[in-house]
Specification:
- This protein is α/β, with parallel strands linked by helices.
- Helices cover 41% and strands 13% of the residues.
- The chain is built from 38 helices and 31 strands.
- The radius of gyration is 37 Å and the shape is elongated.
Amino acid sequence: MDLINNTTKTLKDDLSVEIKQGSKISIAAACFSIYAFQELKTQLSQIDELRFIFTSPTFVTEKAKKERREFYIPRLTRERNLYGTEFEVKLRNELTQKAIAKECAEWIKKKVTFKSNVSNENMMGFINVDDKNYMPINEFSTVGLGCERGNNAYNIIQKTELPFSKIYLELFDQLWDDKTKLQNVTDEVIDNITAAYKENSPDFIYFMTLYNIFNEFLDDISEDVLPNEATGFKESKIWGMLYNFQKDAALAIINKLEKYNGCILADSVGVWENFFPPFGLGKPFTALAVIKYYENRNKSVLVLCPKKLTNNWNTYKDNYVNNPIAADRLRYDVLYHTDLNRTHGTSNGLDLDRLNWGNYDLVVIDESHNFRNGGKLVENPDEDTKDNRYVTLMKKVIRAGVKTKVLMLSATPVNNRFNDLKNQLALAYEGHTDYIDEKLNTTRSIDEIFKNAQRAFNTWSKWEPCDRTTENLLKMLDFDFFEVLDSVTIARSRKHIQKYYDMADIGTFPTRLKPISLRPHLTDLKKAISYNEIFEQLMLLTLTIYTPTHYILPSKMEKYAELYGDNKVNVGFTQANREQGIRRLTAINLMKRMESSVYSFNLTLIRIKDLINSTIETIDRFDKHSGTTLDLTDISDMDEFDAEDQNSNDLFSFGKKVKIDLADMDYVSWRDTLEKDAEILELLTYMIGDITPEHDSKLQELFRVINNKITHPINGGNKKLIIFTAFADTADYLYDNVSRYVKENFGLNTAMISGSVEGRTTCPKLHADLNTVLTCFSPISKGRDLFDSIPKVDIDILIATDCISEGQNLQDCDYLVNYDIHWNPVRIIQRFGRIDRIGSKNKVIQLVNFWPDVTLDDYINLKAKVETRMKIVDMTATGDDNLLSDEEKTDLEYRKAQLKKLQDEVVDIEDMTTGISIMDLGLNEFRLDLLDYIKYHPDIDKAPFGLHSVVTANEDAPAGVIYVLKNRSDSVNINNKNRLHPFYMVYIGNDGEVICDHLSPKEMLDKMRLLCKGKTEPIPEAYKPFNKETRDGRNMSQLSKLLGDAIASIIEVKDESDIDSFLGGGQVSFLSNEIKGLDDFELISFLVVRRGKNS
C-alpha cells in the first residue's frame, strides 16, 4: 500500500508510470474534465479501454420535465465540468478548449464508454488501472490529479495492489453490468464535447452571452408582467402592421407598465408605412398596439394630446374609410392637454361636466414633454390655489379612482434638466417616491438619484465644448441612474434603427442633401436701415408699458400686495416679477419678429406703439378726484401655454386682469419713459415703412428658391415645397405674396396653415381646414384617394407655422424652407422630420435655411444683449442684480455650436439636444431578445463556457475580439459603474487597444447584436482562415494574450478609480480584495471579428 499526498507526489505522476500500452482503466468519479485528459494524453492514447461511471446522475435522459431549479443546478454544473471545472479557469482562459475537446472526442469514440448512476444511492469514487486501485477519487479533473490545488484542505489518495485491490476491481465489474443502477451516456458525452469544438453560429454566441448575463432576469420574470398573448393582441390588425423595432417596443412597454406602472417612449424616428400609406408609423402606432392589448383586457384608455394632433388619434378609433385599423375597433377617449383645466363644456365629443376622470386604467400622453415642468402638489390647498395642468392630471386622473398606468410619448423628454424626466416619471408613481423605490433595483431613492445626475450634468455643462461629449457625461453618471432609465424608458434613434434592425422590410430613409444657408440683406433700398441699426434702436427701448407696478408709490405697495395675496413671505409684489417676464418676452419677441419678416416686425411695433399711446392718453386725461383704473394682465399662467400660443398675437390677453389706480402711481415718471419708447417706435416704423414686398430682399430671395425648385426638381417631377415660419403674421404675409407669384408664373396652388387663424388656399371651393389642406398637399401619404369628399386638386406650396411641426407625415414633399430660424434648434429638426421619414418615395430631400444678415457670433451676441438689457432694466427697478448667469452664457455658447452645426448638415434630434439624450442607455431590448429565444431554445443553459464564433468586421465594428467574462471575486465593480456586474465585456483591437470598454455595455451589446443576430449559420469565409491561422485552435497564444490585455484594462480602470477615490478623501483599502488577474475572470464566450476581403 502506498499513500499519494498530492503535494510532493501527485496522482498524475503515479498514473503516468502505471498506465501502459494496452492498459484497461475503470474510473468512478463525480465528473470528467477534458483538461484531465490533456494532462495524461500521451498515456491515455495507448490504453486498450476506459470505462467511466458518473457517481451522480449526469447526462442522463430526462424522464420527466426539468427538475426544480435547486436540484437541477448541481447536475448542470457536473455536466459543465466536462469542459473544465471551476478550478480550471486558468486553463480555459488559454483558449485551447476547442483543440483539446476535438482530440478528446476522437479518443472517446475509440476507447471510452461512459455510464451514469441513475439510482438514488451514493457511490464513492475510485480508479482501477489494470490490477491497481486508487481511492478515494472525487473527480477526474486537474484538481483530482493533483495538478491544481482547488479548494481542498488536503487530497490524500491510497494506492493498493493485489490482493487488496481485488475488492474494488470486482465491485466495478459488478456495478458496470447492473442496468438498474447505470445508464449508458457515451453518446451524450460525445455530443456535449462536440459542442465545444464545432463551429458556432454568431447568432448562437450572441444569445449564449445574453443568457449568461440576463438569466437572473428570466428567474425574476413572472407571467404577471409579461404581455399575455391569450388576449389575442398579436392577431390584431395593428400588430400585423408594426415593424420589428415597434413590436420590440410594444412588448417592452407592456412589461414596464405592468412592473413599474409607467413608461416613456422616446423614439425619434419617423416611419412611413408602404403598404398602407396614409399614416406615419412612429410612436403613436406603437402606442396603439399597447392600447389594443389593454382594451382586449377590458381596460378603459384615455389619450391626452395637443389639439393639433387630435385628428390623427381620432382617425385610428373611428369608423372612417382611411382608418387602416378600423377592424380592431379601438374605443379609447381622446382629450386635449388644455382640457385638464376645463370644468364644463364639451371637448372632442365628450361632456366635461360629467366626465369621470378617475376611471381610466391607462392614460397615453402624446407630446408628454409639455408636462416636463411639473407642478407643486399641495395636499390641502386653499380656495385661491390654482393648479396647473400637471397637478390637475395627477389629482384628477392618476391619483383619483382606479389605479392608472401612464404611457408617455415624446421625442424630447429631456430639455436641459434631468428634472424634466423626473417630473414626467412622477406621473407613473403618483408623485409618491416610495411607490417606485421599492420596485427599482437601486441603492438610493429616485429623488437622490436624479439630484446626483443633475449635479453631474451641471458640472459637465460648464466644461469646454470639446470636452462636453456624451461619452464623458455617461462616465459621470452612476449605475442607479441607468437602472432607472432602463426600467422606465425606451428610446431608439434613427441611427439605432438603421444600425441594429434589418432595413429591408422597413425601407430606407431618403438621403439628406447638404443644407442651403441663405443670408439676404434686409432690403435693396440704398439708404434703408440695416439689421444692426434696428438692434441699436431696440436696445434703447425700456418697454415700461409692461411694468406699471414698478411705478406704484412705496406707500401704496402694501395695498396691492394684500389685494393680490402676494405678501405671504414679504418678498415684495410678485406681480412685478410677472411683468418683468412679459417685458422680457416682448423684447425677445420683437427681435424674433424682426428676424422673421419686416411685415411681422412692423405690425408688432404698431401694436406696442398703439398700446403706449392709448396709455399716455389715459394719463393725460387723468383726474385725481374721479380716479382712473388701469387694466393690466396677470401672466402667472405663462407656462400653461404651448410654444405656439406664445407666438400668437393675443399672448397677453389671457389670465385674470390686474387693476391699478393711477392715483397710486408715480405716473409722471412713467409717462416720461413711455414717451421715449413711443418716439423710438415711431422712428422704427418710419424707417422700415419703405420696405415693401418689392424691396424686401428676403422675400425676393424666397421667390428665387421657389423658382429654382420648380424648374429644377431634385426628384423627378416633384414640385412640392413647405415653407415654415414661427409667426402667423409672417405666414399671412408670405401667403399674400407667394400664392400670387406661384399662380402667375407656374399655375400652381398654394395654401397656408397656422394655429391661430383659419387656413387659406388658392384652390377654389376647397375647404381650408388643416386636414383637407394637408391631404391635398401630401395626397399619397395622407391617402386622399380614400376620400370621396375631398376634391382631387393638388396643393404644391404649403406655408405653415409650427402647428404642424410635430406629428404630421408629409413625405410626398422633398423640399423644406425655414423662412426664420427657430431659436430652439430641436424645432428645426422636428420641422424637417415632416419629410425625412423611413419609406419615403423621394431619393433625396433638401433643407433651406434663411439666416439673418449678420454673422452667427453677432446673432448670438444680440440675443444675449437683448436679454441682458431687459435684466438691467429689471435691476434699476427692483434692485435685483441678476444679469446673465453662467448657465445662460453656457447655454448661449451651446446654442451657437448647435446652430453652427445646422448650417453645414442636417443633424439628428439626439445629436442636437443639449447633451442629454436617453437614446443609448436601455438594455431592455436585449432581455426581450433573450425571452423570445428561450421559448424555442430552452437548452441554451447547457452550452459550455468558452465557445466562440468568427464574424466579419465592418466600419462600426473593427477587427479585434469581444470577450465576455465573469468576475469570480467581488472586487471589481468600481462605484457601481458596471451595470452588468459580475459580467464584463471588453472589445479589444488586434493591436491590444481597447475599442469599447466594460463600462459601455449598451454600446457593446449593440455591436454584438449587429454582428451576430440573425446569422444562424457559421460563416465559412470568416472561420476557415481563422482555423487555419490557429491550427484548429491549437495555437491560441495571440488571443490568449489579448484576453490578458482585456482583463488588465478592467483592472487598470479599477486601480485608477481607487486612486481617484483615495485622493478625493474616500476610504480605500489597497490590500483587500485585490484582483489577481486572469484567474479572477472566467471566460464565458468570445467573438472574433476579422477583416473581410473587402474591409
